[in-house]
Please model this.
Amino acid sequence: MQSLPGMDTRPTSDRLRETLFNVLCAGNPGALEGTVWLDLYAGTGAVGIEALSRGALQVTFVESARQATAVIEKNLKSLAIREGFAVIGGPVAVGLRRLQTSGASADYVFLDPPYGMEPEYTGTLRILGEGAIVKTLGVVITEHDKRFDPGEKHGRLERYRILKQGDAVLSFYR
Model:
């Protein structure tokens, strides 16, 4: 899988990604079959691509960096993934508004803004918690630095689980 240099699009580590999907599948390898995902601040697209490989029906990648959207498209092509995805370039807030206007909804939303961009977490979680894009039983997962807490509650979203692994933390919201 290709990546860009620097820390702005650092991919979720293989180990953390494996932990994430083990938690979501909880011993049921088919748990993600037919699900719809949003991979926000997608970077290399690694999380969304993993979701597709585990049976997700649709993944929408949203990424503001033009070079990163090109990397996502190259990674999808190199893995011969030709359907079940959309790549939206531009700011995540704009992409979310566009998706909400179109009536899109997701079972899972993964967001991982570049570390140091804390306002992106709260702004994005607020949009997700106040809008209708996350399905009633949907899950929002944030990856963040252990020294930053994105908060317990955002609109109708409440954190129900925290998983720490090294310097990275996954916070799960419903």
